Amino acid sequence: MTTSPNQSSQSEAPEENSPLAEKANQVLDRGIEQYQNRQFEAAIESFQQALSLYKEISFQCGVGKTLGRMGYTYYALGDFAKARESSELSLAIARAMGERRMQAQALSNLGNAYRHEGDYAKAIDYEQQSLTLARELLDRKSEVAALNNLGLAYKGLGDYVQAIDYQQQSLIVVQSLGDRQTEGQILKNLGNACYAQGDYPQAIEYYEQRLALAIIGDNRVEGQILKNLATACHALGYYAKAIEYSEQRLAFVRTTEDYRSQEQALGNLGVASEALGDYAKAIEYYEQRLAVVRTIQDRRVEEQTLRSLKVACYALGDYAKVMEYEQQSKTMP
Questions:
Q1: Which segments of 98-159 does DSSP mark as H helices, in order?
Q2: Which residue stretches of the chain are H helix?
């Protein structure tokens, strides 16, 4: 999770009154709107125009803010090197001007960029600095972001205890703010950290809390959470619950053309049904899976599914079907 740049481009500097500065502000505001609408390439173009205008009138505050927004946008595009470059320039200007809020934002984005590049030590250093400033400024939203990002960095290091500690701190703060969207992100991250640690009961608890929020427009994330819930329940031997979550996931992915997720959900449903001794149901799921994998022409998974069908049919004593699937295996291209 990152904190989106949403502050006004207005300033009290004398340069703000010039026609060129007014034009720069308008272009900057246009870029912010494009960023918020996820038109990242267009936003970069607007920010570059605004940057040139601010530099022309030597308006350093405008330059620093624009560079900060460029950093966020490059980060959103996955260009972490440019995200770092823009954020470092923004940070240098912010420090020279004593603009602590701008510093906190630049530090946060630097931490995120380094984390995605796998340099967790630097990510933690920058996020700690951002956290310190956020707390000094009593900026609770930036505090939430810094704590959560620290948790993500420590998870990247494999230090799940520290990751969970920071994200739990973040959760407490965000719940006091009533920001359900961000709360959902943190609950998902906590579930992921507990899941990676192997603490499936706690992971299930956090995932279920996340699903209970019913956040609109987050279906892809919910699909992933349902997948993890099914896997965690299966690992704990809660096969009926695993089936319930996999069924929910399957219902969702069938509304899309995500055939890979469909075959995965069907495979999990088959395995869980076998674990309950319901081989007839397992066969039903495996046959549906077979049809999907043949659609996407995945020979490896097709072979795996045919093996699963043979085992389930054998368990039911349906040897004719065992031979039928054996023949299909032999005649695969």
A1: 100-116, 120-136, 140-157
A2: 19-36, 40-56, 60-77, 80-97, 100-116, 120-136, 140-157, 160-177, 180-197, 200-212, 219-235, 239-253, 259-275, 279-295, 299-316, 319-330
The 8-class DSSP code of residue 138 comes to T
138 phi/psi in degrees, rounded to 5: 55, 35
pLDDT, one tens digit per residue, over 121-135 is 999 999 999 999 999
Q: Does 20 or 266 have the greater pLDDT score? A: 266
DSSP 256: T
Question: 């469909």: which residue's tokens?
Answer: 262
> Cα separation of 162 and 197, whole Å?
11
Percent of the chain topping pLDDT 90: 86
Q: One-letter amino acid identity for 44?
A: I
Q: What does the alpha-carbon distance between residue 73 and residue 39 come to, in Å, rounded to a whole number?
A: 9
Place of tokens 């946060």: 108
Residue pair 35/19 in contact by the 8 Å Cβ criterion? no
Question: Mean per-residue pLDDT for 215-227?
Answer: 78
Q: How far apart are CA 177 and CA 260, in angstroms?
A: 38
Report which residue type is found at 241: K
- Report the alpha-carbon distance of residue 229 to residue 249 in Å, rounded: 10
Q: How many residues does the structure list for the chain?
A: 333
